[in-house]
Amino acid sequence: MTRQKIVFLDRDGVINIDKHYVYKIEDFEFINNIFDTCIYFQKLGYKIIIVTNQSGIGRKYFSQNDFDKLSEWMIKEFKNKKIEILDVFFCPHTPNDNCFCRKPKPGMITQACQKYDIDLNTSWMIGDKISDIDMAFNAGIKNSILISSQYSYNIDDLKTKNIVEDIIETKNIIKA
Ligand SMILES: [Mg+2]
Ligand SMILES: [Zn+2]
């Protein structure tokens, strides 16, 4: 058995338009090209795992049940497009909770590695915030891509050279 290579995807701003604390299906708008891009990753032999900070749960803006229902619906939408989401890991905590799973801490990747036999050397992280890139770095994933978004970053601090405007451009970077 060879170890599994994974594309880890952030959720808000990568899969769906980041409208801040999205928890309702009617507010969940898939980003253009996300399905085509995931099909491409699957063809290359990657599995897809979602890793997402969801402090809206800890802040009591919505419940874990709301999050679970939305995740179930989202996974089904992917399935309708022949895309398998292997798993969804989320951090429900607020910054004050000092947990080990809130990005940029590596806890969600650690959890994924406990559950699956993952080769971090051939895995990728795709996110739209510097904390996504930092989480990958802190977890020992060298390969990451920032999708530039509403969130600003300091290029000198960025731990990747890969910056794209649109998720579809990740195809030019992830080639094997
Ligand atoms: Mg995001
Ligand atoms: Zn957490």
Automatic annotation (TrEMBL):
Residue sites binding Mg(2+) per the record: 10, 12, 128-129
Family membership noted in the UniProt record: Belongs to the gmhB family.
Primary localization class, coarse: cytoplasm
Feature type site, description Contributes to substrate recognition: 102
One GO term (biological process): carbohydrate metabolic process
Site (Stabilizes the phosphoryl group): 52, 103
Names of required cofactors: Zn(2+); Mg(2+)
GO cellular component labels: cytoplasm
Subcellular locations according to the entry: Cytoplasm
PANTHER family per record: D-GLYCERO-BETA-D-MANNO-HEPTOSE-1,7-BISPHOSPHATE 7-PHOSPHATASE
Enzyme class: hydrolase
List of catalytic residues: 10 (nucleophile), 12 (proton donor)
Residues given in the record as substrate binding sites: 10-12, 18-21, 52-55, 102-103, 129
Binding, Zn(2+): 91, 93, 99, 101
GO terms assigned for molecular function: metal ion binding; phosphatase activity
Protein keywords: Carbohydrate metabolism, Cytoplasm, Hydrolase, Magnesium, Metal-binding, Zinc
EC number annotated for this UniProt entry: 3.1.3.-
Name of the molecule in the record: D,D-heptose 1,7-bisphosphate phosphatase
SUPFAM superfamilies (UniProt xref): HAD-like
Pfam families listed in its UniProt record: Hydrolase_like
